[in-house]
Known about the structure:
Elements: E1 2-9, E2 17-23, H1 31-51, H2 61-70, H3 86-98, E3 102-106, E4 109-111, E5 125-130
Helix pairs in contact: 1-3
Amino acid sequence: MKVYVSVKQAGKRKDYITKKELVLAGAPPCLRELLSEIVQFNVTEYNNKADGSWILKYLSAEETENQAKTGKVSFDVLKNPQKVDEVEAIETAIQAFEDGIYRVFIGDNEVSSLEEKLSLKEGDLLTFIRFTMLAGRMG
Length: 139
């Protein structure tokens, strides 16, 4: 099932990620399963980059153009080539949702519970809104 993911940050006018295509294995029954699948996909992608060994990394014109759309052009060289633990990453993402660090919307509807039943359809837009913690003190 093909869906699209958009990541926004509260207080920012520009999206962090605008409609990145994501192919899911199926239709996850609840938000917990959806988050787990998305994290698994991202961990696999990250860990595969950590395995990358090349003598000379270059960007094609197409790669440069695609990265420019997101606002950052880089060679995808990892500063820390250590692999990520998938189980720990899933637990962190779920804990962050429970702590209110981000919210999830499917189309215009907010998903407010990890166990809420989902009715994802082909081409749906998933929006993740990250909230920024304020630093400093009042007074």
